[in-house]
Amino acid sequence: MDPRSLANLVAAMLVREREKHLGILILAVVLVFLAASVLLLSGALRHEMELALDGQPDAVVQRMHAGRPVDLPVAWADQFAALPGVSAAQGRVFGRYFQEQNGVYFTVVGIDFFAENVGKELEALVAGLDVREFLDGDRMLVGSRVAGFLERGRYGGVYEFRTPEGDPVPVTVHGTLPEETDLVGADLVLVEIGLARRILGLGPDEATDIALSIPNDTEADAVMARIIGTHFDLRVLLRREMSAGYADSFRLRSGLFLLLGGAVLAAFGLVLFQRYSLITGTDRGQIGVLRATGWSVRQIIVLKTSESLVVGLLAYLIGAVGAVVYVHAAGAPGLMGLFLGFENLGAGAGPLHWIDTDALVLLFLFYLLPFTASVLVPTWRLANLDPVEVLR
Amino acid sequence: MIRVRSLTVEFPASAGQMRRVLDQVDLEVAPGELVVLNGVSGSGKTTLLSVVGGLLRPTSGAVEVQGRAVAKLTDTSAAAYRRDTLGFLFQQNYLFDRMSVLDNVALPLVAAGWSPGRIRTRVTETLATVGASAVVDRTIAELSGGERQRCALARALVARPRLLLCDEPTANLDAAGRELLLDLLDERKSSGVTILLATHDPLFDSAPHVDRVVRLEDGRVVTT
Ligand SMILES: Nc1ncnc2c1ncn2[C@@H]1O[C@H](COP(=O)(O)OP(=O)(O)OP(=O)(O)O)[C@@H](O)[C@H]1O
Ligand SMILES: [Mg+2]
After folding, report:
1. pLDDT, tens digit, 9 for 90 and up, residues B97-140
2. Nearest of A105, A113, A37 to residue A331 by alpha carbon
3. Do A388 and B96 lie within an 8 Å CB cutoff?
């Protein structure tokens, strides 16, 4: 067949049944948009979490009293560093700072500028910082949500923390962390480690936990056993356990979307059924006429498939582009809250830049194949009957 | 041209029984002949045309057109046969209501692989011969019954077939339309087209170019 003549006929057939095709198009756009949004958002968030995990140390040692983590002597880091299998150990200082009047949390993190940091995450955050200037007085780097909060509260670039004893600690805002770090850093307050101790009420020789570098993962379990042996009240968290924890919380949230996914699937099933029965109803006579006027089964299948593909591809394009804009340009308002929970300084992790193209391709296949098959199968069946039978 | 041998067609009727619609029909039509198929409603005229047109597989018997066994053709050769050899004018004209006349008449040509330009030229030409040039870009739904019948005829003729099967071609035509149809059939006949025409219109009993009238009664040929 001449492709231009075929295209003309496909166009004429689409116009002929425009109400039917428009209805299916709208439904399919909505379904593709919903499914693509969820997939893109979960893909992007998973990607961000993997990045965040990448920055985590190989293991973390906590001291537990009555089942709660408490501060520990920073000197223990040197003991652990001497253990076989451990290449470095560092006391870390961080904690949540509750801002009572407004009911929001900051996550205060101390940076030790004179030690090599275990874990890449902090280093990435302070990369390019002029350390000498930063250490000139009490200064902080803040995440975007904290910056927004300070702006709304008109603090004028200086925020006054209070120590647990009630002493004021004014800290100047030195800068804001880049937007890309929002998922891990939106509520961060980065300060020099000594200042963090003052704000959080730690003694000068105390740390919140100790991060370990264990270059060989197979030694991790042995290291863990040795550390627990040194002090009865220690707990060691290995990175692989943390990643499992991340994945778990993620799966839990994903459960929410199982529901949404189920609804989308059910709706898609209805669309397919609708198309299937249309073919066996309205289009029945059409197929008979085509055969009677000299169309072969193969040609009829090409015609009906092209007709279906125009609608299917158009719906996919609109739905998928819409979802990319919604998730990656608009930050998925509404959906993001469902994923991350409405915690802390308000949901919204800022723009997500990593587009899960694999998911889009997968969705394309899983959507377009059944969509096309729902027309192809009945067409094939009808086209193989005697034309007279189909025409009646 | 056409050779039908002991053709029998049965349709499933109520309670698992079969109803015999054509019973051992024999018929031969020579090339260039115009044969009228006559008979009351339900006598099996449409059924016979359908079998000859390859639109229905018979229960038993043989149908040959130009020496080819119609019922045994593969899908592609059956399609080629309907497209190139055969023009079929249906009793209910089977046009697509919400499509243009051009797109309707063009159907056999699209299947034959023609380009849009050639298609338009040929369709316009054919519509002119059936006296419907004015409607080429209108949709079928806007046309009168007679205009539709002319479009259906144009679609049957558009690929210039050697065999024309017409089922009640005068059903929706006025006097002028019937005149035109007779002229047209005459003109096709003189260019060598074989015509098998089913009707109960007495017009054809006395028409000058009809070679033979075949009468069907209860699925059997009674006079030849
Ligand atoms: N596909 C079918 N299934 C069952 N019965 C059929 C089928 N096609 C035709 N019939 C029956 O076969 C008989 C002959 O039908 P046919 O259409 O050939 O008659 P006809 O001579 O063309 O009648 P008319 O003059 O009314 O067009 C009718 O009784 C009809 O009901
Ligand atoms: Mg009939």
Report:
1. 889 999 999 999 999 999 999 999 999 999 999 999 999 999 99
2. A37
3. no
